[in-house]
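Protein details
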Amino acid sequence: MTPTRTRALIVAAAVAVVGGLLAALIAPWPARLGDAATGDLALADEVRAVIDDPGGYRGLAVARIADGQVRVAGLGDRAPGTVGRASEPVRPDTPFEIGSIGKTLTGMLLADQIAAGQVDGDTTLAEALPGQEFADPTVGEITLAELASHRSGLPRLPTVGATATLTMTLGALRGTDPYAGLDVDRIRAALTRARVGDGRGEVHYSNFGAALLGIALAEQTDQAEQTGSVGEADAGSYPALVERRLIGPLGMSDTGYSLDGADLPAGATTGSTAGGRAADPWQGSGLAGAGIGLWSTAPDLARLVTALLDGSAPGADATQPRFTADDDTRRIGYGWFTTTYDGRAITWHNGGTGGFRSYVGFDPATGDGVVVLGNTDKGVEPIGLALLGVAGDSDAAGAGPLLIGVTVVLLLAVAATPAATAFGGRRRWLPVTDRLNVIGSASSALLYLLIGHLAGAWHDVWAGWWAVAAGLAAGGVAAGVLRWRRLPVTGSGRPWLRWTGLVATVTVTAVALTLTLLLG
């Protein structure tokens, strides 16, 4: 090896080390559950004892219902700490965004209206929404019971057009609200275009269907008010209807909706992603029936569980399992799932938004119940199940094999940059390096690092690998720069095609980086 090549390798290695160390400062390190504890300190200790890995959690609020008694505790931090200022601890009554747990309220509202004779489970969308147009007449035949039990055949999310879909995707990556602007009118417009899939009659989770159920129930109440069947106070929007018919009677004074840019509840905690990135609340009012915009506290949700256990909650019949979801171990009622664990039937629902996770579960046979609320996107189901004394799926807190696999592939793609630039043309299995390779590899590595930082499975993949990959990429680019004067502009392939690909890669990377810096 010549002295020149030796010096080049030393410089490239040094750049890789320094680059990796600098990247470690901005790596997507997940949150870690803070040491603070408030409320019932014994319960807080019980919660910590069942958590296998506190990495990925920042703050938790937990309620435990047993023997007719409710105990509540707060653990960890309400928001990320700042330099020179400690974060405030989570308190038992700290408000959390609870997401899809709101679907249980929609199911309870349906059961309550059925009991009042206002609607029937077989009431169709066409009957509930008079004047609504349907491109697919079969959509109008979907019943309210099918919507409440995810058996409608409708897609998981409404079809809102290419531009809105792109906006939703970018919002999810950046941690902003992907559903901003999706009000009732836009959801009903999506309903006009909707078509029933092949899975009607089978349980396929649908936020779209739950949102439509909420809209339909509010419309039915409006019609009843016009005919004098109900008082004027019961008419209005779906959130107002839930507050009057469920939240108010249950005494859940700290539970409510924050929609379409409205202020968050006082003292609300801040949500964050797996990589520690702050996440905006979700507030699209058209999806309120699916749980968007709903905030609550551990004590309030404990009141809900207690009332369901003693049968005093309006619409408590919604918890009764009516349909098979997956197999004989999981069934569904109106919004509520029931899963059998070694002979114990646990009624439950979970929730997840951009920066929050939640779980409510109870055992009707024993009267035991639990509420777990977290302010990161790491699942809290294992905590809830452990507190209930059943063996659940420990992987429920993770990101899932698909996202883990994508994260690993992105890191490998970043790390491949050194081989393409430092050793290109020097090994038979690597293409000849040219100047376009150097620029393209650097741009691609930056794009992959950015995507990985925003959307990687950092609860399951050590974030230090992101810094290692960044360091290797920096070293590879440095090696290419050191060879720059000896490299051709385009060593192989059609020049026009190579230039077109480079311009596209650089443009996509620049746009992604700009959006992240300006809008994230």
The first strand starts at residue 37 and ends at 39. The first helix runs from residue 3 to 26. The chain has 16 helices and 14 strands. Confidence is low (pLDDT under 50) at residues 229-235.
